[in-house]
Amino acid sequence: MIKCIAIDDEPLALRIIKKYCEQRGGIDLTTFTDPVAGIEAVRTSHPDLLLLDIEMSGSNGVALARTVPPDTMIVFTTAYSKYALDGFEVNAIDFLHKPFSYARFATALDKVEAVAQLRRLRHEATNRAVTFTVKSEYKNVTVDASQVLYVNAMDNYVRLVMADGSKVLTQMSMKAIMELLPGDEFARVHKSYIVGLKHVAGFTRDRIELHACETTIPIGRAYQDEVMVRLKGEGGNG
């Protein structure tokens, strides 16, 4: 069951959303025509999903989206396609251009459920300790995967940068190190970078910022679409 709040100052739009949710099934829906009351409900009840209009009387949905809990999945619903880029800048999962069909609504919900499933898998993995051993400077070093901020390629070596500021240099390929790291906790974001997803503090389509780290990690163009899905699955607002 997906707990959902829909905010739109047009009652007809909310009636259509309610109809689509009933048709879809598995959605516990609460609706608001008052944006202020709706956002307050989001902050207090922490729904899984927020269906949010953008241009409402006296309120802008994109600005409101920046104030909701970071783990709230957002799908924008609006008649104004000019806001699509703004919507994705606050990490919306999808953007529904009114009037949208049930089929288009269902596609958006499929994306929401995929992100929710990814979050569940990550939650189940949080207590799993993963360590591996690499050779560094002629000795074996045991690495705690949960402490790896990022990995970057350096000629025939890779450098693992740890949360405590230490670094481990080992003669391995990016492919080989990726096979050692738990795949549900790390993402290849560039031909030269792998990032620990739980350490991500913020992101755009081009870069990633990490907690306790001054280095900005680039996102390669070929990796952008997949990385955006992975990062949005983490629930962070960039």
Describe the overall structure.
This protein is an alpha/beta fold and 238 residues long. It has 2 domains: 2-125, 3-Layer(aba) Sandwich (Rossmann fold), CATH 3.40.50; 131-234, Beta Barrel (OB fold (Dihydrolipoamide Acetyltransferase, E2P)). The protein contains 7 helices and 17 strands. The chain has helices at residues 11-24, 35-45, 61-65, 84-89, 102-125, 174-180, 224-234; strands at 2-7, 27-32, 49-53, 55-56, 59-60, 73-78, 94-97, 131-136, 139-144, 148-154, 157-162, 167-170, 186-190, 193-196, 200-203, 207-210, 216-218. A 5-stranded parallel beta sheet has the order 2-1-3-6-7. A 5-stranded antiparallel beta sheet has the order 12-11-10-14-13. A 3-stranded antiparallel beta sheet has the order 15-16-17, with no helix packed on it. The longest helix has 24 residues, at 102-125. The mean pLDDT is 89.
Rg to the nearest angstrom? 20 Å
Name of the CATH superfamily of the largest domain: Response regulator
Secondary-structure element series: EHEHEEEHEHEHEEEEEHEEEEEH
Q: How far from one another are the termini? A: 27 Å
Structural class: alpha/beta
The order of strands across the largest sheet is 2-1-3-6-7
CATH architecture of the largest domain: 3-Layer(aba) Sandwich
Number of strands: 17
What count of domains describes the coordinates?
2
- Please, how many helices? 7
Give the overall form: elongated
How much of the polypeptide forms β-strand, as a percent range? 25-35%
- What composes the largest sheet? 5 strands, parallel
Q: What is the mean predicted local confidence, pLDDT?
A: 89
